Amino acid sequence: MAVDRAGLGEPPPAPRGRPPILFPLFAGVETLPGVGPRAAEGLAALSITRPRDLLFHLPAAGIRRRRVPRLADLRPPEIATVTVRVQRHVSPAARGRPWRVVCTDGANDLTLVFFHARQPWIESQLPLGETRVVSGKVDLFDGLARMVHPDHILSPSDPPPAGFEPVYPLAGTLTQRVVARAAAAALDRAAPLAEWIEPSVLAREGWPDWRGALAAAHAPAGMADLSPSAPARARLAYDELLAHQMTLALVRQGRRRVAGRITQGDGRLAGRVLAALPWPLTGAQTRAAAEIAADMAAPARMNRLLQGDVGSGKTLVALLALLTAVEAGGQGVLMAPTEILARQHLAAIAPLARAAGVRAALLTGRDKGEARERLLADLAAGLVQVLIGTHAVFQPGVVFDDLRLAVIDEQHRFGVAQRLELGAKGQRPDMLVMTATPIPRSLALAQYGDMDLSVLDEKPPGRQPIATTALPVSRIEEVVARLEAAMARGARAYWVCPLVEESELVDLTAAEDRFGMLRARLGERVRLVHGQMPPDQRDASMADFTAGRAQLLVATTVIEVGVNVPEATIMVIERAESFGLAQLHQLRGRVGRGTGASSCVLLYQEPLSEAGRRRLQILRETEDGFRIAEEDLAMRGAGDVIGTAQSGLPRFRIADLERQADLLATARQDARLLLDQDPDLQSPRGQAVRTLLWLMEQDRAVRLMGSG
Ligand code: ADP
Ligand code: MG
């Protein structure tokens, strides 16, 4: 990737296959006229090492220069271009004082001011009696017009400075002039390229061609041209998005080409489960289940993301998919990121599996010895049909008879490598990834563009809203008193302690202190869980709480994902301001899962920052996870919403995921459509897209697309 190559020196040899038309753009940046070693160093600090990088280094702002015919018409302070005659050189009155050059237009004076200037330079630039065009910021000093360090000093025969001048981001000793000249030289090297954008898209948007877009983006005529929606910039952003989506589409195509298996259920087992349920599926569940079943029945390998807010009923959709695998004579595995979650999935699934006559079993890292051996033998013999587990299912001894479906819950906690490992276990099982973190559509497309998407955008009916309040921690006594009263009426509650300190130890101390305090106040019915506890103690606490022997669970954020105790109706989150929006939403989602009216108390430490205040406010306003995710994105930016490194979320130079979600959706459609029509990128447009992928250094795509 260009951004990683900060060092200069010899450019690496061109990778095989790069179209020769692009060679000049991939030479070293110092091969451009006017770019010496110092300029190259400054450019490298901006991750610009080749002319190509300069093309995509666009002005970030602009300066309007007003041409003012007569000095009398100046309106200081303003940036103006004027034509004057040099009248007088005034040498510095003392050390450290500036040179002054008094100029006139015949009627009025303008003084040019230079600090640290030397006489020969002044005399050569502004010879006495000569006419010069000067441009810069004019202000008033002691009532007299002056211009300190003009940006331009030109002779009347030179081309005048542009009325609107681009301002590039700089680094090191770079100046605007150096970058502008280098960018212009890079543009000169850019040959026109065959169009890769679908003609109808190009026409609809009214975009210029690639080269025209670059030229226009580097020569804005006004502020409007700097906007992301200006046609030239929008087109260049689209190029980036298209290249990225093409890569993902190629990955998807490559995966689909490796023949998967046809897993066709007959609905026999699923029917029994649906009959055993006290309620019907939601519309969204029905839709998602059908999409999954269709994928499984198709010969291509499924790679689908099931996205649904907390409580939208993903587990049931997953179970139906697992049963499809069993109906077809195979097995399925469901993997959860923590043991608590794996146990809970088993608890939810076991009774339904029993109703269907299917054998489900749990495998965690704690299973040892003979019981484990027996389980593994049954799994290898196909007697265990649905396996639920943690990372332990990756262990070498875990062998399936006929693994047809892998469901991964909360995928961001599993690495890509582990997903691949799992893929190696079965005969290329279909993959269903579930995430309870609603992601704005734009991010979902960017991050999971290689997957197909099912969204549970509807919650089971009858859910009551969660009354959410925010209180300063100084009112903690009131909260404890209300909690005590509610517990006396049989309520169950969570108390979440924050992760504020760097060190987990400090956090645990905080949680343990809080536990001690609440236990002293509320007695025996209080339990503690945190990630560092011995597993059996943790299980015991959870089991007590689930069964109602305990009524208050003091926890660190281990309960964030998935913990499901429908009787719990109160959630207290301490130092709520220190959590992110998505996390707060997840935590709150632990209550409001049953029939009882639920509440959530956000305890915060004063003073609240503006962002902290806004987060708590959004949370009080809505329970819609997708809306919360959009707000989160707007507040934090894409890279932070999903950690960039782990997500593989690309860094775009021009495109803006927050504001250009529509372009991204178009790019995804366009990319998939093109591959449907021209899977090997052999058509003229396919060839043009190849060039785009080389230009955008989509290495993964370049490897996938084969030779053209
Ligand atoms: P998620 O995993 O998406 O957060 P769950 O699968 O844990 O949600 O479901 C949340 C709760 O809703 C569970 O108690 C589940 O039994 C219940 N549930 C699921 N589907 C429905 C439905 N269609 N109607 C009513 N309740 C449902
Ligand atoms: Mg769940």
From TrEMBL:
Listed SUPFAM superfamilies: Nucleic acid-binding proteins (SSF50249), P-loop containing nucleoside triphosphate hydrolases (SSF52540)
UniProt entry keywords in alphabetical sequence: ATP-binding, DNA damage, DNA repair, DNA-binding, Helicase, Hydrolase, Nucleotide-binding
Residue stretches making up the Helicase ATP-binding domain: 295-456
Domain Helicase C-terminal: 475-634
Signal sequence, renumbered to the chain: none
Pfam families: DEAD, Helicase_C, RecG_dom3_C, RecG_wedge
Gene3D superfamilies registered for this protein in UniProt: Nucleic acid-binding proteins (2.40.50.140), P-loop containing nucleotide triphosphate hydrolases (3.40.50.300)
MF-aspect GO terms: ATP binding; DNA binding; DNA helicase activity; hydrolase activity
One GO term of the biological process aspect: DNA repair
InterPro entries named among the record's database cross-references: DEAD/DEAH_box_helicase_dom, Helicase_ATP-bd, Helicase_C-like, NA-bd_OB-fold, P-loop_NTPase, RecG/Mfd, RecG_dom3_C, RecG_wedge
Superkingdom as given in the UniProt entry: Bacteria
NCBIfam families with a match to the protein in the record: PRK10917.1-2, PRK10917.2-2
Protein name per the record: Probable DNA 3'-5' helicase RecG
Lineage: Bacteria, Pseudomonadati, Pseudomonadota, Alphaproteobacteria, Rhodobacterales
